[in-house]
């Protein structure tokens, strides 16, 4: 007979029912504008590792940002689309410390930055609690994502 998973079991899914600590369960955490796994990957980017990103924009506002280390692009696009409807942009984050650069490739059809620097910086400050000097660049060839 299989062992029942209880909330005390470290492998059991966590829920908010009866919890006073206010933690979100993993499914709800990934539906935030920047999910838990994206925050971790964004932290890696700050340490100097290249990471992929998918950004969802509606008019001049950023609705969601997914930052990832591995996996197919389509998977991350689907994850971002669960947040809302808008235009999708994808590329690679490079940099170190506060100076992050979001690279978009011309071959993917991106001719200009999707949002202004200030909008990106405010989004990262409000949603990820990161003060950065981020900017978007349009390049001919994207840097490789490091594992």
Shape: globular
What is the percentage of strand-forming residues?
A: 25-35%
Q: Alpha-carbon distance between the termini? A: 39 Å
User: Biggest sheet: strands, sense, closure?
Assistant: 5 strands, mixed
Low-confidence stretches: 9-22
Structural class: alpha+beta
Mind explaining what this structure looks like?
There is one protein chain. This protein is α+β, with helices and mostly antiparallel strands and 147 residues long. It has 4 helices and 5 strands, in the order ααββαββαβ. It has helices at residues 26-29, 36-46, 73-81, 117-127, and strands spanning 51-58, 61-68, 87-96, 99-105, 135-139. It has a 5-stranded mixed sheet. β4, α4 (117-127) and β5 form a beta-alpha-beta unit. It is globular.
Q: How would you sum up this structure in a few lines?
A:
The protein is of the alpha+beta class and about 150 residues long. It contains 4 helices and 5 strands, in the order ααββαββαβ.
């Amino acid at each position: 007979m299989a062992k029942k998973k209880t909330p005390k079991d470290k492998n059991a899914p966590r829920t908010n029912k009866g919890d006073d600590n206010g933690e979100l369960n993993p499914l709800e955490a990934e539906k935030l504008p920047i999910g838990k796994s994206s925050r971790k990957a964004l932290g890696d980017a700050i340490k100097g590792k290249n990471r992929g990103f998918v950004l969802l924009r509606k008019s001049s506002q950023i609705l969601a940002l997914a930052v990832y280390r591995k996996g197919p692009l389509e998977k991350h696009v689907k994850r971002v689309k669960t947040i809302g409807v808008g235009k999708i942009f994808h590329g690679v984050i490079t940099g170190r410390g506060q100076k992050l650069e979001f690279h978009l490739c011309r071959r993917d059809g991106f001719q200009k930055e999707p949002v202004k620097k200030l909008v990106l910086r405010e989004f990262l400050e409000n949603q990820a609690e990161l003060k950065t000097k981020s900017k978007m660049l349009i390049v001919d060839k994207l840097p490789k994502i490091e594992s």
